């Protein structure tokens, strides 16, 4: 049986839990780079697919002067939107289908893990559908007061299993969690596969 591809949220938040200011700005992330860039290079080698919410995709286009494909070379990108444009840039596909159906189809294909880029609404939608496996969160030692939360607000109770914690000399902390209910789901699928 082949290993199932994981969907992993790899993201930075402010110390008060926001991924961006209300206008989408991430100016508070501009800080001196550390050796190893918080492990981004190593993580990038483990994925071959990125999932984007439409607003995050729009911010990415603004930040790269409309050329996101140069920023994420040789990687497949899916953008979730209710109103897909007629054409997509190279390496990008626009998606408007149920999350479980999409995730099942994507996980069934051969490949590396899948990076959930964000934002908060698409992360929440995948989490509520039981389709997020892990969170790798870099907590930046900065309060921004208000903004876009890591996960869109809704009453939920999702247990997490701590996998690791790492601190960096500049005060950044990387916390790595598995989504507990997803771990149980994978164990049940593995048992079925052995029968």
N- and C-termini, Cα separation: 11 Å
Cα-atom radius of gyration: 17 Å
Number of strands: 10
Order the strands across the largest sheet as they lie in space: 5-4-3-6-1-7-10-9
Record keyword descriptors for this entry.
195 residues; alpha/beta; 10 strands
Can you characterise this structure?
The model has no long low-confidence stretch (mean pLDDT 87). With 195 residues, this protein is α/β, with parallel strands linked by helices. It has 6 helices and 10 strands. The radius of gyration is 17 Å and the shape is globular. The termini are close together. The protein has helices at residues 40-44, 54-63, 68-71, 99-107, 120-128, 180-194; strands spanning 7-14, 18-20, 47-53, 76-80, 92-95, 113-118, 134-140, 148-149, 160-167, 173-179.
């Amino acid at each position: 049986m082949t290993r199932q591809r994981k969907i992993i949220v790899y993201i930075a938040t402010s110390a008060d839990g926001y991924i961006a200011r209300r206008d989408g700005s991430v100016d508070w992330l501009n800080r001196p780079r550390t050796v190893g860039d918080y492990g981004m290079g190593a993580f990038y080698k483990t994925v071959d697919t990125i999932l984007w919410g439409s607003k995050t995709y729009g911010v990415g286009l603004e930040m790269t002067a409309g050329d996101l494909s140069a920023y994420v070379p040789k990687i497949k990108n899916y953008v979730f939107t209710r109103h897909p444009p007629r054409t997509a840039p190279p390496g990008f596909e626009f998606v408007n289908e149920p999350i479980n159906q999409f995730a099942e189809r994507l996980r069934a294909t051969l490949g590396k893990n899948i990076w959930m880029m964000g934002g908060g609404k698409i992360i929440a939608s995948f989490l509520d559908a039981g389709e997020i496996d892990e969170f790798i969160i870099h907590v930046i030692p900065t309060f921004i007061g208000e903004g876009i939360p890591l996960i869109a607000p809704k009453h939920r109770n999702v247990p997490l299993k701590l996998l690791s914690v790492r601190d960096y000399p500049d005060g950044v902390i990387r916390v790595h969690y598995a989504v507990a209910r997803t771990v149980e789901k994978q164990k049940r699928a593995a048992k079925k596969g052995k029968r």
